[in-house]
Amino acid sequence: MQAEGAVVYERLGCPGPSREGARRRYAMYEVTVDELAGLLRAAESAHAEYEKQLGHADSDWPVWYARFILEKLEKDEVDL
Question: What are the pLDDT tens digits along the chain (80 aa)?
Fold first, then answer.
């Protein structure tokens, strides 16, 4: 069974909701303040689109942002 919003997550480049995701270990990344700020801006923009498609505010936005940013770091998609 697909979780609500999972297709939107995939389309916007962010992993969908997952119970296992909360326990997943991530590598350490070194990023500059400018790189992190850029990732936060990209997450904000993608999340706004996600909420439009979802049709309501996402109260769990911090987790969405975290997954989005970690995925970008894993794929080495850090743009300034």
Answer: 444 444 344 445 555 555 455 556 667 888 899 999 999 999 999 999 999 999 999 999 999 999 999 999 988 887 65
Q: What is the CA radius of gyration of the chain?
A: 13
Q: What b/e string do you get for 27-52 counting C-beta neighbours within 10 Å, with b at 16 or more?
A: eeeeeeeebeebbeebbeebbeebbe
Nearest alpha carbon to residue 74 among 9, 28, 33, 37: 28
Is residue 63 classed as helix, strand or coil in its secondary structure? helix
Quick count: other Cβ atoms within 10 Å of Cβ 55? 7
